[in-house]
Description:
alpha+beta
Amino acid sequence: MTRSVPSPTAERARAALRWAWRWPQGFMMLFVAVQLLLPLHYYLARLDSHDERFAWRMFSPTRMTTCSVAMTVDGQPVALGQEFHQAWIEIAQRGRRRVVEAMGARLCKKHAGKAVIARLECTPIVSRHSLGPPPPTMTRSAWLRGRPYYMGGFDLCTIPEL
Length: 162
């Protein structure tokens, strides 16, 4: 009894069919793995707690944190609206360090040799359950705000990271 040897093209066609059958399953497994592992970067490696992109924090109070941003060049206040795009300013007002650092780097490049200082005053949202009832002299929105905390206050040209 003689066996016929399959042709190379038939063998390639079978291999392509096997690959086409397994590819969607492998893609789905890889996609789910990326969706589960990518947010770990926020918890394990990211230094900026205000940057919640790709994190598992859909309803996080961190997103509601508001910051006031003030920048000075050699002690003179900078009009942020004239120097930067409104999108940069809005993201900086969320407390995103990298954006404020990039704004400082841009001002350092524009005003070489001068001190560029950025100050952020951030006010978080706190749980109303931990506060008790609001005092009668305070508005509800002010009552839900936590104690402010500060970032910056040094020359971004010599120390470029907040």
